[in-house]
UniProtKB/TrEMBL annotation:
Listed GO biological process terms: methylation
Keyword vocabulary terms for this entry: Methyltransferase, S-adenosyl-L-methionine, Transferase
Superkingdom of origin: Eukaryota
Phylogenetic classification of the source organism: Eukaryota, Viridiplantae, Streptophyta, Embryophyta, Tracheophyta
InterPro entries the record matches: COMT-like, COMT_C, COMT_dimerisation, SAM-dependent_MTases_sf, WH-like_DNA-bd_sf, WH_DNA-bd_sf
O-methyltransferase C-terminal domain span: 117-262
Catalytic residue list: H248
Organism: Hibiscus syriacus
Name this polypeptide is given: O-methyltransferase
Length: 308
């Protein structure tokens, strides 16, 4: 059995693994703080306050719902370490007082600039984007600049397939930057950029691209081919529903429903080829064409999903 020599480097390695294993704790603590409206409580007090003052205001101050103070203290200790709140220990030995930081100001529910809806109320990021044009623009730009990185590789990597189809729809195509490059290189293809209404409305016009708004859980436009962006293909091969750039947002049942709407026949013969040709192992796409087989086979992996 291999043994690890416990020098500084090894211990550092162990710490890194622990950090990844427990990083969810940060997110859970942040979610609790948003749900308990701790930032709002401090903000409406107008300055730093003690833990028991925070506790007394939680859930409107009703005695039945007062939180466990020890647990609250632990949440606050973690969030102070993560610089979400500050703590000040008075020199006279009084109770420590907690205040907001530039980060927790983003958690105020009534502020115009708030990220609280992303952590609370079970709202999806898409709902937040549809209500908030600024966030919508930021999110769409972020997506489009990530996909630009691989556009060129896609154009050369799929020459044969792209040459052989007459129409193509990019499902969840964002503002259409990928498909606009495809139609520039392959002007014979009738292309559709398909995404939610608020995304498509914010999309720039591109020559040859039809933007169609819709919900991929209801219907997807017909075409010879479907393209869905996928990133981090090494992970995709092991766990396709987690890391596909569109499908990663959804659970297995949702993904199967989307794929059913795509009416995909045989898709995805591309991962290994793509990697061999492009080498970096970072990204790939789904490219499918209609056929009779109603199952999706992930070449090189054991995954086969029945979409009948
Ligand atoms: C990770 S982004 C990828 C955007 C683009 N394909 C790219 O690679 O830059 C996922 C996209 O899926 C879209 N989306 C989410 N839910 C959708 C739905 N129900 N119907 C259609 N598109 C949806 C989002 O609006 C978003 O543009």
């Amino acid at each position: 059995m291999a043994t690890i020599e416990l020098d500084d480097v090894a211990v550092q390695g162990q710490a890194e693994i622990w950090r990844f294993m427990f990083s969810y704790v940060n997110s859970m603590a942040l979610k609790s703080a948003v749900e308990l409206r701790i930032a709002d409580i401090i903000h409406s007090h107008g300055g730093a306050i003690t833990l028991s003052q925070i506790a007394s205001c939680i859930n409107g101050g009703g005695s039945e719902s007062s939180p466990d103070i020890t647990t609250l203290a632990r949440i606050m200790r973690l969030l102070v370490r993560r610089k979400i709140f500050t703590v000040h220990h008075p020199s006279d030995g009084g109770d420590p007082v907690y205040d907001l930081t530039h980060s927790s100001r983003w958690l105020l529910h009534d502020s115009e600039q708030t990220l609280a809806p992303m952590k609370a109320h079970g709202r999806e990021v898409w709902d937040l984007a549809s209500d908030n044009p600024e966030f919508n623009g930021l999110f769409n730009d972020a997506m489009s600049c990530s996909s630009k990185v691989i556009t060129r590789a896609i154009l050369s990597g799929y020459k044969e397939r792209l040459s052989s189809i007459g129409s193509l729809v990019d499902v969840g195509g964002g503002t259409g930057s990928l498909i606009s490059e495809i139609v520039k290189a392959y002007p014979h293809i009738k292309v559709v950029n398909f995404d939610l209404q608020h995304v498509v409305w914010a999309a720039p016009p591109y020559g040859g691209v039809s933007h169609i708004a819709g919900n991929m859980f209801r219907a997807i436009p017909n075409a010879d081919g479907i393209i869905m962006m996928v990133m981090e293909v090494r992970y995709v091969l092991k766990s396709w529903d987690q890391h596909a750039w569109i499908l990663h947002d959804w659970g297995d049942e949702d993904c199967i429903q989307i794929l059913r709407y795509c009416m995909i026949g045989v898709i995805l013969s591309v991962f290994h080829d793509f990697l061999r040709r492009n080498g970096n192992g970072k990204c790939s796409v789904f490219l499918g064409s209609f056929g009779t087989t109603k199952s999706v086979y992930f070449e090189g992996s054991e995954q086969q999903v029945d979409v009948n």
